[in-house]
Specification:
Shape: elongated
Number of helices: 10
Order of helices and strands: HHHHHHHHHH
Distance between the termini: 22 Å
Largest sheet: none
């Protein structure tokens, strides 16, 4: 825990006052090139990067969980293979290709990146929601029916709360994938930390590449750990801790 807190403090300090770390990145520059990326504020890029990932994950969660609920009801079972195909296509279709197809329609900016992240984040959330909703303890489901709960009551008061820790694990995986994938959004003018990495590649400045990569990596690590803690707390509350 102390290591994670120290890492968080280091990350926040770098994002807010990157020039403080200039001596650290100086050895990775050549021919007097700047050690810190200053064309756009690192803080601004980080916030924009997180906002894109957050919006895409929220949309993917609403869509994937709704789809999983539908296909686990008696009237929607026949749509399960189609739903799985949609989620699989979203995961396997290369995000770069999604950007290439979306730019002519939506233009440059954040929208093509949001679409790519939304599609890429569907599969883990959908599969985990499906697992959570279909692997409930049999006695619990029977007890809910036995006390006369309607289908909606069983879903909202029994099934979904019990499945939530498993669904959250899928959301965590989706967020971590999206944090790294969002960097390619800068190739279509979305404001992400990929801008720092691309600037480093174009100017042959390893210090810039390290800055962009390290901020994304540490963000992914800290968010992953934070969500794991929430999952464990939820699992303890629902009695489904492994």
């Amino acid at each position: 825990m102390l290591t994670r807190l120290a890492l968080l403090a280091l990350l926040v300090t770098f994002i807010v006052t990157p020039q403080t770390f200039a001596p650290v990145f100086e050895p990775f520059t050549r021919n007097g090139a700047p050690a810190i990326y200053t064309q756009t504020s690192i803080l601004s890029l980080t916030l924009s990067h997180l906002a894109l990932v957050g919006l895409a994950t929220l949309a993917a969660t609403l869509f994937a969980v709704s789809l999983a609920i539908v296909v686990t009801r008696p009237f929607g079972v026949e749509f399960l293979p189609l739903s799985r195909s949609i989620a699989n296509i979203g995961q396997t279709f290369p995000p770069v290709a999604v950007l290439a197809l979306a730019v002519p329609v939506f233009g440059f900016g954040p929208v093509p990146t949001l679409i790519a992240l939304f599609l890429y984040g569907l599969l883990p959330i959908f599969e985990n929601a499906l697992t959570g909703l279909t692997n409930l303890p049999g006695n619990v489901a029977e007890a809910a029916r036995g006390v006369g709960m309607t289908g909606w009551q069983r879903l909202t008061q029994v099934e979904f709360p019990l499945a939530f820790p498993v669904i959250l694990a899928g959301i965590r995986l989706s967020v971590v994938i999206s944090l790294a994938t969002a960097t390619i959004g800068s190739t279509v003018a979305a404001k992400t930390l990929g801008e720092v990495i691309i600037a480093g590649l174009l100017s042959n400045n390893t210090a810039f590449v390290l800055q962009g990569g390290l901020v994304v990596g540490v963000l992914a690590l800290l968010i992953h750990d934070g969500l794991v803690m929430v999952e464990r707390a939820m699992a303890r509350r629902t009695g489904r801790q492994g």
